[in-house]
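for the recovery benchmark. tokens below, seq after
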């Protein structure tokens, strides 16, 4: 039996998988049917009636989001009857809508605004006062609700139920007094609550963290991977003026579907805090040349007996940065290779997206070290047995848990890091590198999936890519790592890590201006 179905939409034949709905089948032909309540990641309820189409031999118009395709089905989306029905439905939705677009944070990415210009564009015929509802309702720790902008599509209700598994939103009252609300005394407060803002087709739900910061049409979008935990949710960085303004989920059915957690969304704040923007030697600003020469000189003394030197790979940094340092560790023949990372947070693990490991790349570091034949020790184990002969440590990243602070002071610490905190503050030499949103690279999630990050904007000050800083340090100690781009590091790396030999380096992408991206609703 065939798994596909062939039907005709607007006179064109189309073959799609069995079970597809008419709305999605039309999309494959480039036919966009207007819709509010339908979302491909949510259960279908067909309640807005904005997607009505004519289907031959069917006496009534059908909601295309709910209508499943059938062999020989003939669908019309541009006939006068269904066109008028969708136009009238849009007018109906607008009857009590406040149309406060100039002060609405969704303007520029609002489905209602878009459909009005696409399908109606007519003057209002409402000559009676509109029904007003509450504005600026503090509905939860991260979200503000404007009840009169809500078009009662129930996407947010279904998102709470489906994504977080918590029924926290509901409709109350009837007719034109119906409104979205929480149960008395309750809040919209769950680890995935901000997905409701993404799915809201209008400006009824807005994020406290983002609202009134930037207009959507001013932002550029760059695809990347959330570095908040080992799940590696696919995201877009929305940025402007060399900084990120928000992170939103990017569809990947194999990782995060359409969703991400609230905590992950807020990780962009860290890109601007405590940054190491220039090299330092003994805590004082230095040029790159002086810092590299100083680091090489300090290391050179101990590399005569490499057992005195240790390197720290980091589960918080990319595969490329870790591979570069792992290569140096191998060439230097160091006595100790540690792996550092943030301590696990067992309470996070919820069987959905959030996992206990809050490092983006523990699996990547493990694979690289194994491929290069490096025996690694978790850094937190050092408290128990710090090697007495250890004299110098090259640390990637700023996280080094479990390392005795007094012992650390006795060592020549060379830090290669994006942030000036933790182990970096006491480093003899600190080399500034790009953070995750500022450099091309990859991370490997808990399931071993290697995922590509793109540079959304330049790193601050004199910071450069981590692998580049490490290659410069290597060069000064006599180890030549001839890379001019992250892609070349990648090429070298996959030649060694057998499990990654079939993974390709995704092509470079240019930031996409959101004003050309259409509505995100
Ligand atoms: S708040 Fe937004 S997503 Fe929720 S029902 Fe209203 S319009 Fe739909
Ligand atoms: S689940 Fe993890 S990877 Fe996904 S958004 Fe949250 S912190 Fe980021
Ligand atoms: S999108 Fe089909 S009924 Fe709402």
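predicted aa per position
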């Amino acid at each position: 039996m065939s798994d596909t179905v062939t039907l005709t939409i607007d006179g064109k034949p189309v073959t799609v998988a069995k079970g597809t709905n008419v709305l999605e089948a039309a999309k494959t032909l480039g036919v966009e049917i207007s819709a509010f309540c339908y979302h491909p990641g949510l259960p279908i309820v067909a309640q807005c009636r904005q997607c009505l189409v004519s289907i031959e031999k069917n006496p009534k118009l059908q909601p295309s989001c709910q209508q499943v395709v059938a062999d020989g089905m003939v669908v019309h989306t541009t006939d006068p009857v269904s066109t008028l029905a969708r136009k009238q439905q849009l007018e109906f939705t607008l009857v009590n809508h406040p149309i406060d677009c100039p002060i609405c944070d969704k303007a520029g990415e609002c489905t209602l605004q878009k459909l009005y210009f696409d399908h109606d564009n007519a003057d209002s015929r409402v000559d009676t006062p509109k029904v007003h509802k509450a504005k600026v309702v503090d509905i939860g720790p991260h979200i503000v609700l404007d009840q009169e902008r809500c078009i009662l599509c129930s996407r947010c209700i279904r998102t709470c139920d489906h994504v977080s598994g918590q029924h926290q939103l509901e409709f109350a009252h009837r007719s034109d007094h119906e409104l979205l609300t929480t149960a008395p005394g309750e809040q919209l407060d769950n680890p995935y609550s901000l997905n409701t803002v993404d799915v809201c087709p209008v400006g009824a739900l807005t994020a406290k963290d983002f609202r009134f910061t930037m207009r959507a049409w001013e932002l550029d979008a760059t695809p990347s991977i959330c570095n908040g935990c080992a799940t590696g949710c696919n995201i877009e960085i929305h940025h402007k003026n060399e900084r990120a303004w928000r992170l939103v989920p990017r569809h990947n059915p194999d990782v995060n579907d359409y969703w991400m957690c609230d905590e992950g969304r807020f990780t962009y704040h860290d890109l601007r805090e405590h940054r190491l923007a220039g090299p330092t030697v003994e805590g004082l600003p230095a040029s790159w040349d002086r810092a590299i020469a100083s680091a090489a000189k300090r290391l050179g003394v101990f590399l005569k007996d490499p057992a005195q030197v240790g390197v720290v790979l980091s589960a918080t940094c990319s595969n490329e940065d870790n591979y570069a340092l792992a290569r140096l560790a191998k060439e230097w023949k160091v006595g100790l290779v540690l792996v550092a990372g943030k301590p696990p947070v067992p309470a996070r693990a919820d069987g959905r997206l959030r996992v206990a490991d809050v490092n983006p790349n523990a699996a990547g570091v493990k694979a690289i070290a194994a491929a290069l034949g490096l025996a690694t020790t978790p850094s937190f184990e050092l408290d128990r047995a710090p090697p007495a002969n250890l004299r110098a440590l090259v640390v990637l990243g700023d996280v080094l848990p479990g390392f005795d602070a007094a012992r650390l002071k006795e060592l020549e610490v060379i830090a290669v890091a994006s942030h000036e905190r933790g182990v970096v503050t006491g480093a003899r030499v600190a080399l500034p590198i790009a953070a995750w949103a500022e450099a091309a690279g990859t991370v490997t999630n808990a399931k071993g999936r290697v995922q590509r990050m793109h540079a959304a904007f330049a790193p601050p000050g004199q910071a450069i890519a981590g692998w580049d800083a490490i290659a410069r340090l290597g060069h000064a100690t006599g180890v030549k790592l001839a890379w001019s781009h992250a892609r070349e590091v990648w090429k070298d790396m996959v030649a060694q890590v057998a499990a990654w030999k079939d993974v390709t380096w995704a092509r470079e992408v240019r930031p996409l201006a959101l004003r050309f991206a259409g509505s995100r609703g």
